[in-house]
Amino acid sequence: MRTLLDAHGDALGHGAAAGPTVVKVNRDELTGLADAAGTDAGALVRGWLAAGSEAVIVTDGAAPTRVDTASARYTVESPRVPTRSAVGSGDAFAAGLVRSLLTDPAGGWPAHLRLAAACGASNAASVLARLAAEHPPSALIDRVVVRTEAGR
């Protein structure tokens, strides 16, 4: 069974140590947990991958998302949209990722991350926490840039 953990604080620390398939966290949550544990964010990410997670995804608002897997590191640049409210964009990212993982399991991380980022950007273009009709993920997905650093 594939699992995705999107939590913060103690729930993040304990849950990530259990090795979920994907750990999705924002930069502030990761930094806070690392500070509380007396370590650095990189050490936490490496530990979660060693515990069995396939990917650790660190979102950072409009800044590029960093994704670490056992074999590669990805940088994901979301398309620029008029931001009306970022509330729920991390959840929309997670939902897009889950949809891609379920509907196209062999699609590969770059494809999964493109849909996730398109969903997060679409949400940011809406006043409410939902996908924006005027900026649907299908119109944004080709504008997502995924860069790969192989050979981790």
Question: How is this structure best described in words?
Answer:
The protein is of the alpha/beta class and 152 residues long. The chain folds into two domains: 60 residues, no CATH class; 77 residues, no CATH class. The chain is 43% helix and 21% strand. It has six helices and six strands. Strands 1-2-3-4-5-6 form a six-stranded mixed β-sheet, with helices on both faces. β3 and β4 form a beta hairpin. α4 packs antiparallel against α5. The longest helix is centred in the C-terminal third of the chain and has 16 residues. The protein is globular, with a radius of gyration of 15 Å. It starts with a strand and ends with a strand.
Write the layout of secondary structure elements.
Elements: E1 4-5, H1 9-17, E2 22-26, H2 27-37, H3 41-50, E3 55-60, E4 63-69, E5 72-77, H4 89-103, H5 109-124, H6 137-140, E6 145-150
Helix pairs in contact: 4-5
Put the structure in a nutshell:
The chain has helices at residues 9-17, 27-37, 41-50, 89-103, 109-124, 137-140, and strands spanning 4-5, 22-26, 55-60, 63-69, 72-77, 145-150. It has 152 residues and is of the alpha/beta class.
Count of individual beta strands: 6
Shape: globular
- In which order are the strands of the major sheet placed? 1-2-3-4-5-6
Biggest β-sheet: count, sense, barrel? 6 strands, mixed
Q: Which structural category fits the helices and strands?
A: alpha/beta
Q: Number of helical runs? A: 6
Task: Give the N-to-C terminal Cα separation.
Answer: 26 Å
Return the string of H and E elements.
EHEHHEEEHHHE
Q: What fraction of the residues are assigned to beta strands by DSSP?
A: 15-25%
The helix fraction, in percent, is 40-55%
Rg of Cα set: 15 Å
Mean pLDDT score: 94
Number of folding domains? 2
Low-pLDDT stretches are none
